[in-house]
Amino acid sequence: MKKNVYLTLFFLFCCVFSSLSLENKELKVLRWAADAESNAPYIFQDPKIPSNIIGFEVDIVNAIAEVLGVQTKFVQNQWDGLIPGLYRGDYDIAINGLEITEDRKKEVNFTIPYYITYEQLVVMKGVTDINSLSDLVGRKVGALKNSLAERILRAKGGINVLTYEGEVNAFVDMKNGRIEAVLVDAPIAIYYTAVNPEFEMVGQPIGEVTYGIALRKEDTVLLQELNYAIDIIQRNGKLREILDSWNLWNYMMETYLDDYSPTNVPPKKYQYFVESVSKKSKFLERIELYYKFLPVFFEAALITLGLSILAMFLAIVAGLIIALLRIYGGKILSWLAVAYIEIIRGTPLLIQLYLIFYALPSIGIKLSPFLAAILGLGLNYAAYEAEVYRSGFFAIPKGQMEAAISLGMTKFQAVRYVILPQAIRIVIPPVTNDFISLLKDSSLVSVITMIELTKVYNQIASAYYDYLGTGIITAILYLLLGLPFIRIARYFEKRLAVEYRTSKVKQ
Amino acid sequence: MQEKQFFVIRLDAENLLFFLVKQEKKVNFKFLLNQCTKLNEVILEVKNLSKKKENLLILKDISFSVQKGELVSIIGRSGCGKTTLLRCINCLEIFETGYLRVSDIEIKRNNNHSKHNSLKHEENDFKIKSQKIRQKVGMLFQTLNLFPHLTVLENLILAPIVVKKEPREQAIEKAKVLLEKVGLKGYESRYPHQLSGGQSQRVAIARALALNPEIMLYDEPTSALDPELVGEVLNVMRDLDEEGMTQIVVTHAMNFARSASDFVIYMEDGEIIEIGPPDKIFDNPSDPRTEAYVRLFRE
Q1: Contact B134 A408 (CB under 8 A)
Q2: Closest CA to B133 of A270, A14, A317, A408
Q3: Is A407 touching B (CB cutoff 8 A)?
Q4: How far apart are CA B167 and CA B171, in angstroms?
Q5: pTM given for the model
Q6: For A95-152, how does the pLDDT look when each residue is reduced to its tens digit (9 = 90+)?
Q7: What letter would DSSP give residue A357?
Q8: What ipTM does the predicted assembly reach?
Q9: Chain B interface with A: residues with Cβ < 8 Å
């Protein structure tokens, strides 16, 4: 038992050190970040091979890397975290439909644009009275949060703007009749309407969106290199070829690149996507598709499980220490324990994760995502476990402590041999309960670049616009992950309560 | 020689002579005299002990002493401070002023300290000494508080192993002997919940004895028990008395106090009203307050 504890501690120790090791500054590998949940055509999972990441931005990064003669390495991060992550140093560039705006320019440098596009109105098929921005006045219209589309709609005035985290939510809401139109970046509109024939694009292009690659302010050499590379692929036709193959070449790019020649590359990749996604309507094909996803889901489920077990282990150990300090620690330590519990319980886990992941590096503590996730979840749950333990301790009659003390034991010995073993029996059910809860809360760590079960669900679901089937798979996986632990806990509960049970039978 | 001496002290004077004669040793009178004075040794001494609880004086100037091998009963109405006194002897409660000696460990306390520093020093001193005292004093409580997660045997060996660092085998060996002594041979692997109240208290006595205490304290050991179970616990105490164990009992079992005690202490409102042999306390008390109390039990 003791050996196991030491082994685990040693393991955690190793994790800390490996994650603290310094990274190579010299640019041999271009580490680029994006959110693979951000849908076609930007960056998404290959419908045929879900572990592959494809998209027109993937092609652009590869083209740039080819010009610069470097390898590429993809780093997954939540879209909201792309810019903060740059300064954590997990990757060197972020490319993911990041619009070049004045606000963002204050934080990061942008390369010259690699793509220019416009906002597109989408309505339900058959709607005829919406054709322009003016037609939207007095209606409910959806847009993505913090997008140019939202700003355009708000500037117009008189429009009831609803904002969404993902475009799929906006489209589903329109289908359900909650909104009448959606204004999104053209690539989204083109791809979404292609596979969902109940929607259609209407009206003229609105506004102008320029996408650039974001990088840290201090990386000026890298900025020059990237601009050089983008310039090269613009000149040698590589960029055009990519955009053509994705069916994204538009009149704005014509003017930007001064290239008015007709398209001669067939939109192969666009067709590939449309075919593989819209074909899934048949039940058997759908099952076959899900079957293909399973390995990806299983891998993510293992990460979720490992993460949860390690975090819970930390929570149980740290929680016990905090509870002991609170009850037996004397004035100062007990006050500190109470403060810890109240602060951790009183603040959102999400904020705590952000602080550990993005704020700690600024004072020199840079943890790997996995370690940060374990620490964040574990230390958060430690506060709850501490209170669970405390209730367990208080359930032990006072006479037990006195009996132990009067047998010459020190307080520490009394807790160790008499109080704790009894308290643990009492807290097994609530601790199991918390573990199940942690298993599900672990989905929050996707905000700090961990790819776990819920993240994979979001990625796959958004790539196929299929939230139902994949959602059920994910839910079942969570259930399966939790069940064995409920069983184990019940077994221990029964075994440990054997003395009580037999007494009941006897009496 | 050391060993034998130890064994000898455990016997009363009569048995001692018998033992020495049986061993066919030359009777060394100097040694014998030495042993006899040891038998009369005062093992517990309480002088001018006072205790406050929230500005209420709950023990007032308590003084008495107990000799080795005596059985002392403390009687009195509920709330008169007898339990608190017992707990003070075991240092489960801190007293403000007074002197306490258990065997060779002395605690002197004086509340009127001018400097905070010396007070802190004294608290530490008290902590260390109370730890030592508790190892010499076994205590049995009113409530049944065997450790419910451990078997009877584990209850008995826990403290010897943890506190006295005895080897497990030796502790088990001794525990079995003690269980037999309290009449519970064969109950080793039972859990406390499988025992009756009387059995629980007997195991608790054995648990305390496992630490080889010099004094046993009992806080109303039978008051939580069904009437028919009281006898078995009191009998164990009688047996211990015959073996020469020093025992102090807070009790409402007047018959026991009367028949088994060497002397009886009557307390009222935190004060000792009268100390005397049981016959005197119960039949012919000198204080009217004692008279009023014992009259309740005469019918």
Answers
A1: yes
A2: A408
A3: yes
A4: 6
A5: 0.72
A6: 998 999 888 888 899 999 999 999 999 999 988 888 888 899 889 999 988 888 999 9
A7: I
A8: 0.81
A9: 90, 92, 131, 134-135, 137-139, 141, 143, 145-149, 158-159, 162-164, 191-194, 204, 207-208, 211
